[in-house]
User: Fold these one by one.
Assistant:
Number 1:
Amino acid sequence: DAGVTQSPTHLIKTRGQQVTLRCSPKSGHDTVSWYQQALGQGPQFIFQYYEEEERQRGNFPDRFSGHQFPNYSSELNVNALLLGDSALYLCASSLAGGNQPQHFGDGTRLSIL
Amino acid sequence: AQTVTQSQPEMSVQEAETVTLSCTYDTSESDYYLFWYKQPPSRQMILVIRQEAYKQQNATENRFSVNFQKAAKSFSLKISDSQLGDAAMYFCAYRTPYSGGGADGLTFGKGTHLIIQP
């Protein structure tokens, strides 16, 4: 049973560019959340998708956007990249309803030059 | 806004000994969930243990147990018989139930780096 998979593993971009990160949830999960983890910090919640709609959003600018597809996979898009966007981006999936724990992927390491 | 504080940036323990990691949180909610996650160098965040705020009994998972003090807003993690494989960053996390079901976004602390000395 495959867990949460993210691609790519590593990515290098320059300031001002745009990037798309991808996430496939654990089999059977329908809710996907994205987190940004700066070096030496705890993850910060970006947003959550459920039934192809953004359901909840953390304190991130509109440069961060996302999408969820009918198969529950998700993309995170970041426009106009800044040096401060360099971080590990984690995707987590869960079942809807009740007290369901979030299962995390291995993350995408994004470096901005 | 909810906040989670981990006051110990780093902790060190001898193999086979017991260690306690501290976590406090701030919330005005009465119903919420608390978690401890482990993040080894492989980067994947792994759930260690969770606690529902409405349950008075402290959660236990094998060598891992918590001391949940709701009035003090404290949620510490005790690791018994520490093993080399326990070495990792440990994050305390909080979330509230979402009225529409599913899992809300987690609020994490800054983490505690646990070192296991052989």
Note: DSSP finds no helices and eleven strands in chain A.
Number 2:
Amino acid sequence: GEDVEQSLFLSVREGDSSVINCTYTDSSSTYLYWYKQEPGAGLQLLTYIFSNMDMKQDQRLTVLLNKKDKHLSLRIADTQTGDSAIYFCAEKAGGYQKVTFGTGTKLQVIP
Amino acid sequence: DGGITQSPKYLFRKEGQNVTLSCEQNLNHDAMYWYRQDPGQGLRLIYYSQIVNDFQKGDIAEGYSVSREKKESFPLTVTSAQKNPTAFYLCASSLGASGTEAFFGQGTRLTVV
């Protein structure tokens, strides 16, 4: 079945760039997502990328997709303390609505 | 404002009791989902529904039940058959197969003592 993997923890200093990585196994993935979860709250969609794209940039966020290696990354430029949260990678195959989530990466930003 | 609402935010129940978690959306979304979140395990799909009066089991449906009598509502019952029910439960909705984004509720933290 589908599997999405992420490292559990990342620590960066305020102002540095953060890079959160994700690998997935389903070669039929059509949509790949990054969600943010703040403590005790639901998930909020940050950005998504279609599988036929290599890169997507949205303000401080850059998503890179290597479809050959099934590797997705999220880069946050100029990381702020407000970026501290858990970041989930997720994928969805075309037509079938099930979204598979990774384990989440907890980002800690050190002032 | 449009959104998806879960209630209550915190819920305590005694072991052996059934409990129902509420999820309501006014986004006119066809699809609704229930996920369970445990530390270090990400989100696991319990049940999902693509349309009213229809729902499908997810990856960890045992010990749970749902209904979808109205488009806006997708309640989840955690039954006494669920071996380890203490968790954070998240409800989500999306437009359907054509929708790219799932909108999440704020979650319900269930503690069974």
Note: The CA atoms of residues 50 and 106 of chain A lie 24 Å apart.
